[in-house]
Design a protein that fits this description.
By secondary structure, the protein is mostly helical. Helices cover about 35% and strands about 5% of the residues.
């Protein structure tokens, strides 16, 4: 092997090491790195698979969960500052001007009268309230409320949240409403509209209940 060939191979190896190191740094920057920072992303996320044939309860969502998204909440940021905002605010999860990822809220969605027989399942599913329900449901892991993004992010529980710390603990009254919704789906085989009163008693009391 000539000296020129040896120099060329050493140079190529050095370039490969430099590129690998650069990608490693970029990977840490984009994914949040490890778990040393309590506000950082975890190394891995493991969501349990959905089992059974249950659905979340639409009536409890529109009566007790949706109002949480409109409620002015005290928020604490990692730099120590605080603010008051709503989840449905413009720049947060508002459907028109939100920057909060896939979870979007239509703030002026009107409640659907589930007692009115004219409101068929197809009509309800076309409503703005159902769109909110569907979006929120997409952030849920059945039976695991505290790792569901709808709670994990506002609690900064192993995942970053640009909107700051909204719920200090799982015992926050508003967090408990969301937990109850996730932990008490409709009975197996029922759709999300059947038996509208199911899930209200016993359970956390909400202002609309």
């Amino acid at each position: 092997m000539t000296e020129q060939t040896q120099r060329t191979r050493r140079s190529a190896a050095a370039v490969r090491c430099t590129v690998a190191a650069a990608f490693a740094v970029l990977g840490l920057a984009s994914c949040g790195g490890g778990n040393d920072n309590p506000l950082d992303n975890p190394n891995t996320l493991s969501n349990p698979t959905l089992t059974g044939n249950q659905r979340l309860r639409f009536s409890y969502f529109q009566t007790c969960v949706f109002p949480v998204f409109l409620k002015p909440l005290q928020i604490r940021f990692s730099n120590g500052t605080t603010a008051v905002n709503t989840c449905a605010a413009s720049g947060c999860h508002d459907n028109a001007n939100g920057t909060g990822g896939a979870f979007r809220v239509i703030p002026n969605a009107q409640p659907v009268d589930l007692a009115n027989p004219a409101n068929t399942a197809d009509i309800i599913r076309a409503s703005d309230m159902y769109k909110n329900f569907y979006s929120a449901q997409g952030e849920v892991v059945f039976g695991s409320p505290l790792i569901s993004r709808i709670l994990a992010k506002p609690m900064v529980n192993g995942v970053l949240h640009g909107g700051g710390l909204v719920f200090e603990t799982a015992q926050d009254p508003d967090a408990r409403l969301i937990q109850y919704w996730i932990n008490n789906p409709a009975p197996t085989g029922s759709d999300e509209f059947s038996d509208p009163t199911f899930g209200f008693t016993p359970g956390p009391v909400c202002n609309s209940q």
